[in-house]
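Q: Given only this backbone (75 positions), what sequence would you predict?
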């Protein structure tokens, strides 16, 4: 089934539903759109952070402490 035919079928079904059920379908559609927007935003932030050079200085620093500096070791 094509996208257009699914949309038309859904509209026909919506026309037969009572008002409260139409509201539920509308709320669910808004929820799905919100979820998609959040996913796109999250992926964008993850990409931006992964490509960021903000913490590159940590890779260049020498190790300050070693195992010998520990007072207690837990196993």
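A: Predicted residues:
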């Amino acid at each position: 089934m094509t996208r257009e035919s699914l949309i038309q079928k859904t509209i026909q079904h919506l026309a037969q539903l009572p008002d409260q059920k139409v509201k539920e379908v509308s709320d669910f559609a808004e929820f799905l759109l919100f979820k998609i927007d959040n996913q796109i935003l999250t992926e964008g932030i993850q990409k931006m952070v992964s490509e960021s050079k903000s913490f590159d200085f940590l890779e260049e620093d020498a190790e300050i402490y070693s195992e010998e500096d520990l007072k207690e070791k837990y196993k």
